[in-house]
Amino acid sequence: MFKIILMLLVCVQLMFAIDFKETRYLYAIDKSIDFEGSITFLKESIKITYIKPKQESIVYTQNDAIKQKKLFFMILEAIHSDDETLLGEFFEIKKDKNIVTLRPLELAKEYIKKVEYEKQKDRLIFIEIFMQNNDRIKIETIR
Q: Is-cis flag, bond preceding 104, omega within 30?
């Protein structure tokens, strides 16, 4: 019985995983690195599982001790759930056609210059995070 429940949990998790490709631009070395993986939105966390360039998993939670991870959790969760009230606590929100630009208010300014994203209905097309150190992270979903 335990094996059946475990299999069901794994299947449910896989059903709600979103495949993506990610490009990280590292300003300090003027280089881009490409990643592929999936993101799963769980009840109180977000799990990112990378398959390329190497297998690795990262879990983001609202209560993470690392401020930057906690901020990324909030951004990803709020965009995923269309929670503009939460985004408005940390960002000035500007919409131009399909692109939403988030400019950080005081609490998010330490790490982020701006965030841009596009959603079509419930589907995220891309999110790009521009960091204060001139690094960039762009995540594009794969159908």
A: no
Q: Whole-model pTM above 0.90?
A: no
Q: Would you say how long the chain is, in residues? A: 143
Nearest-angstrom CA–CA distance, 90 and 16: 27
The answer to whether residues 20 and 137 touch, using CB atoms and an 8 Å cutoff, is no
- Would you tell me how many other CB atoms lie within 10 Å of the CB of residue 53? 10
Report d(CA 134, CA 142) in Å as an integer.
26
Which pair of structure tokens corresponds to residue 62? 């609202």
Token digits of residue 65: 């001790």
CA distance 74 to 88: 12
Do 117 and 128 contact (CB within 8 A), yes or no?
yes
- The candidate with the shortest Cα–Cα distance to 78, out of 65, 55, 94, 62, is 62
Write the DSSP assignment of 4-45 as a string of letters: HHHHHHHHHHHHTEEEEEEEEEEGGGTEEEEEEEEEEE-SSE
The confidence score (pLDDT) of residue 16 equals 63
Q: What is the pLDDT of residues 116-130, one digit of tens each?
A: 999 988 889 999 999
